[in-house]
């Protein structure tokens, strides 16, 4: 098992920047194209716990089915948001990096350097 895992979207310039920073740091790395291999609801819950954030903080709005699915409704439960992200992985903000010292949603992209410094 790799020391670091990145939930990566190769079409995203921020994700590519973070991946390159990890490769430049020479870390043992697993690259997971989360669109091709989406995380399950259980994996999302684990990720949110490691990130220390609520589901809405991991929810991507731009260029996703966010509005079509009515995910802006503040009454929606965390479980409903997690289920939507599991079913539509484009809703997951990226990139997310998991390392031995913690996890980060690398927005802004420079957040990767904080994780690598820990």
From TrEMBL:
Signal peptide: none annotated. It is an enzyme of class 1 (oxidoreductase). Keywords: Arsenical resistance, Oxidoreductase. InterPro entries: Arsenate_reductase, Arsenate_reductase-like, Thioredoxin-like_sf. Its EC number is 1.20.4.1. The keyword Hydrolase does not apply. It catalyses: [glutaredoxin]-dithiol + arsenate + glutathione + H(+) = glutathionyl-S-S-[glutaredoxin] + arsenite + H2O. Belongs to the ArsC family. This is Arsenate reductase.
